[in-house]
DNA sequence: CTGAAAGCGCTTACAG
DNA sequence: CTGAAAGCGCTTACAG
């Protein structure tokens, strides 16, 4: 492996001239620059990142804790990671993956990675209600940005990027309304979920705006499974009232709705319009395809990296992005 | 941030005694060690990893290229990443994520990361037929290990860990046989897929061993979707012959089989036993639950890290692991 | 515009 | 068992 010194010797300049050629090329005379660049090329020189990091005390690495998977089926995590990686690379950075216990118990791991200078900062996700990580990191002065707000907190400890779940639900409602649906139900989660309350709120507001009924049209599922989605749908239909639209809080619940409708001889998309959330790989692969709200992953990732690596001059940055409605057969005009 | 020097001053020893306390504690007298450790604790000292890496030229970081997701729905990637991370951490290492173009076009990216000393080596996955990456990395002398063999190659360029797909299919066949099934079909992929041929081979061999028929019982699906799985199942059933068991090459195809069976008024598990592959989150979440072959992720990750970081003394290491049959309702005794 | 010097925070022989 | 010295490969002021 060639070093700066060897390149310098080959180009007959000093080491810092080579360093400047790399980091501040405008400081060199054109002919010197070209000569140095030729030597770099010829010797196939690549700067040693560890030496650089030691000197500058910046590693250009961003820590991300891989969620432990038994917790929750995170069907879009690979999309998120890919987008995050790509966004980081556009700024010359990379993602360092690590595992840590949940909640505040994981904080020593974060602290350690930062103290050893293995990462410059962190991207958080899987934010929970009253998530303690944000406050802790802020207190330690460790740079971070969160994908997801800290729910049920009036002031957010740090910068975040999130997707507007309420706006998403409202988009789904309006879409179903436009295809003629007038009794649109909501399949949700327990009230303890901040994300769940955000999404159900959007559904309720949109229905009221459009003069649609909401009473008796919400079912809260205990867990995020196809089975629960089907059961909830059955409960709705058994209540005797007509339902011609279902906005589900997740693709998984929506899949349950599709199954129950089919089982009863109803045609999803024709008799009842159904929408899901997150546009997971499943949405495309079922039949009829599931209309779903796509999280703008590339934009999310871009914003996260920009905020984390940008000059944090002043107050925390907060970015609420709109999801995109991807229309498929499950909500075809009735 | 405290440095070695400060700890040394505090403990009234030299810096290399502190270094030894950390890296070769047996060299210190017990009382010196304790004194040094107290200072380390007190000053909350954490060694700077970049300084260490510069000196030892080992970064304790393993590169993994995040697959670009439109390619293939990789439903168990988060499980894999979590297991890989955990295994790496058990040896004091971490995973560095990056993106790269597919095939040989991505090789400069690998080379660059290694040349800049940002990673010590790579874990590869998503191996393809005649995958050029293995040969390239080996030629450059860049350490790597592959999750997945290079298909249709007589000699493997480097070390690998893989799951025995043939054995998996055979396990599924025998399981269905034991619950009374006698006409067991296989839903597969095109012949161009090495992984597909591995799995269909295991099905064929097991059927022959058990004296079961195989002719007319294989359907090759063009893509890995629920729709294709359902269509293939329809073709099988329309052929007029009885089918009482279906071994599907993937969970997605198996889901298609379940749907088509249900559509025809057949009860999966009761009338026809169905199995999938990979035990993705879906398997647990559908109803009836899908019997599937779980890849032993923790063991896979452990072996990958051991091979990559171990002394590669001599010939490439090859490890073929058995999947585990997770039995659920879709294959309940008929 | 270019170069001699110092130093980032460690570890590795080696001498005592 | 402990310490003085050298050096890993860069970058950062600073002088010329």
Question: What layout of secondary structure does this protein have?
Answer:
The structure is a homodimer of 334-residue chains.
Chain A: H1 4-11, H2 15-23, H3 30-43, H4 49-56, E1 61-65, H5 77-89, E2 94-98, H6 107-115, E3 121-124, H7 132-140, E4 144-147, E5 160-163, H8 165-178, E6 184-188, H9 194-210, E7 218-220, H10 226-238, E8 245-248, H11 251-263, E9 273-277, H12 281-285, E10 291-294, H13 297-309, E11 318-321, E12 324-326
Parallel strand pairs in A: 1-2, 1-3, 3-4, 4-5, 5-11, 6-7, 6-8, 8-9, 9-10
Antiparallel strand pairs in A: 10-12
Helix pairs in contact in A: 1-2, 1-3, 5-13, 8-9, 10-11
The structure holds a DNA duplex (16 and 16 nucleotides).
Protein name (chains A, B): LacI family transcriptional regulator
InterPro entries (chains A, B): HTH_LacI, LacI/GalR-like_sensor, Lambda_DNA-bd_dom_sf, Peripla_BP_I
Domain HTH lacI-type (chains A, B): 2-56
Descriptive labels:
homodimer; 334 residues; alpha/beta; 434 Repressor (Amino-terminal Domain); Rossmann fold; six-stranded parallel beta sheet; six-stranded mixed beta sheet; 43% helix; DNA-binding
């Amino acid at each position: 492996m060639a070093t700066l010194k060897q390149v310098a010797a080959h180009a007959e300049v000093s080491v810092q001239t080579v360093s400047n050629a790399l980091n501040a090329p405008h400081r060199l005379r054109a002919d010197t620059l070209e000569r140095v660049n030729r030597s770099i090329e010829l010797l196939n020189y690549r700067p040693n990142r560890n030496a650089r990091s030691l000197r500058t005390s910046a590693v250009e690495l961003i820590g991300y804790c891989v969620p432990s998977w038994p917790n929750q089926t995170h069907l879009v995590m690979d999309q998120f990671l890919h987008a995050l990686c790509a966004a980081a690379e556009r700024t010359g950075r990379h993602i360092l993956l690590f595992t840590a216990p949940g909640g505040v118990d994981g904080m020593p791991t974060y602290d350690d990675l930062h103290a050893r200078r293995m990462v410059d900062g962190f991207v958080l996700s899987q934010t929970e209600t009253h998530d303690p990580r944000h406050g802790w990191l802020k207190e330690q002065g460790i740079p971070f940005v969160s994908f997801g707000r800290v729910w049920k907190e009036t002031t957010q400890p740090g910068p975040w990027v999130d997707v507007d779940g309420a706006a998403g639900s409202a988009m789904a409602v309006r879409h179903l309304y436009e295809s003629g649906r007038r009794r649109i139900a909501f399949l949700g989660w327990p009230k303890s979920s901040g994300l769940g309350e955000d999404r159900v709120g959007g559904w309720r507001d949109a229905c009221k705006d459009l003069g649609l009924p909401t009473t008796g049209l919400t079912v809260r599922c205990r867990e995020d499974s196809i089975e629960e989605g089907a059961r909830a749908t059955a409960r709705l239909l058994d209540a005797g009232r007509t339902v011609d639209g279902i906005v589900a809080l997740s693709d998984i619940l929506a899949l349950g709705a599709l199954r129950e409708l089919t089982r009863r001889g109803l045609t999803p998309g024709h008799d009842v319009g159904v929408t899901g959330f997150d546009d997971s790989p499943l949405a495309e692969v079922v039949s009829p395809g599931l209309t779903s709200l796509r999280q703008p992953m590339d934009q999310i990732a871009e914003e996260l990296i920009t905020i984390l690596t940008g000059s944090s001059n002043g107050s925390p940055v907060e970015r609420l992005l709109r999801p995109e409605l991807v229309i498929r057969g499950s909500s075809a005009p009735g």
